[in-house]
Amino acid sequence: MARPQVVIIGSGFGGLFAAQALAKADVEVTLVAKTVAHLFQPLLYQVATGILSTGEIAPATRDVLRNQANATVLLAEVTRINLASRVVVAEKLAKTVALKYDYLIVAAGAGQSYFGNDHFATFAPGMKSIDDALELRARIFGSLEMAELSEDADERRRLLNFVVVGAGPTGVEMAGQIAELTQHTLRKCFRRIDTTKASVLLLDGADVVLPPFGSKLSAAAKAELERNKVEVRLGALVTNVDATGLDVKYSDGRTERIASSCKVWAAGVQASPLGRTLAEQSGAGIDRAGRVEVNRDLTLPGHPEVFVVGDMISLDRLPGVAQVAIQGGRYAASKIRGEVSGHPVSEEFHYHDKGSMAVISRFGAVAKVGKLELTGFPAWFAWLFVHLIYVVGFKNRLTTLLHWVITFIGRARSERVTTEQQLVGRLAVKQLGEDFQPTIAGTLEPGKIKH
Ligand SMILES: Cc1cc2nc3c(=O)[nH]c(=O)nc-3n(C[C@H](O)[C@H](O)[C@H](O)COP(=O)(O)OP(=O)(O)OC[C@H]3O[C@@H](n4cnc5c(N)ncnc54)[C@H](O)[C@@H]3O)c2cc1C
What we know:
CATH topology of the largest domain: FAD/NAD(P)-binding domain
Structural class: alpha/beta
Strand content: 25-35%
Number of domains: 2
Mean pLDDT: 94
Bound molecules: flavin-adenine dinucleotide
Shape: globular
Radius of gyration: 23 Å
């Protein structure tokens, strides 16, 4: 008899850990993802600021699963899911595949949200993918290069004004690293500009940084950022973004125009549109961020064969963090293993909070593990240890550690290459429009409209 077919959508934390947890199950696993790699998103900011290479945080999924005989990896974007006929349709370069499933795990994650102002994305890229990180790297280092060329004082000021929107972990880490670059790493690299005069601004509409960390750690994080020359402005709502700056409205009613060429958006997330497809077909609820309201065993209402995990779920206000996805992926796999082996798992999904941490500066971080709250070097050391464990692959762990030694002890950064393609690629593709399809030969064929 044919083995049950498990289709997994996504190669992030939820998808990959689910696939690995099915290694010994009597099933065939097909993991389909629109990106070739398993991306370790928490370290994207280190690619954007020249610390790590892309390969270190994004090993090829095909390589990670090469020894798992029951797993097949496909590179394609899922465009349709038909719950009634149990088929997933995925496309790549005008090629379409239809995948029949007995069990489906949807782990397609979340994208950036601009809260209805999608035009901000043109000028303030988010940080969700390798493309985003490389574009930001090109924008950050590129701003300094352009400032070195500029003869105009106003233009120079604008180019040396970096603005990060959103004071969650991503924004805090990003702002801290840009300040580290301008205050230390690049200090001696330019002749016509003084990079230590650059300003790094961190804006947030809330009145604290890192709200989920609690008031003590939030205050410690803000103080550490300011000590490292990041200006933190809270109660600051961004009302517009364009090529030369941002408009901000403060909670006391004041408005301000901030001139800046390099803006980073780290302010909101929106679950994959596949969530809406699932909700429409199953009658499941969906929240404002597009997350699907799943049953307590992570299945879709009326569909015990379909699991949704990670950033796509709305359940008990669970946060969009890696551990929710990892534990959800493993739990879904355990349910499938149980059913296939005739020992069904009746337990509901329980999330074990292993804590959260954010790096602010060289040797400075905040960490919250249960009731334990750490700041400074102990928090930074805990961060180093945890992140090394979760970087996938021994070789990646080794080279990541080497890069961290170079950066944290020597303050140097060895991944500073940027190209014009990285700078303009996203916007150029957008301008071409959807009626152009790239081919593997590198040409663009008009008329093949994507559906
Ligand atoms: C910059 C940043 C920093 C973060 N820092 C932390 C941190 O410090 N600690 C922490 O715990 N969490 C952090 N997170 C959150 C954490 O990374 C996510 O919660 C986690 O990645 C969610 O896992 P997931 O499997 O649900 O989705 P993802 O890891 O996002 O994976 C989604 C997968 O689905 C694929 N996909 C999407 N759409 C389709 C489609 N239509 N067809 C096929 N494939 C598709 C993608 O290619 C990807 O492989 C951070 C996130 C970001 C962006």
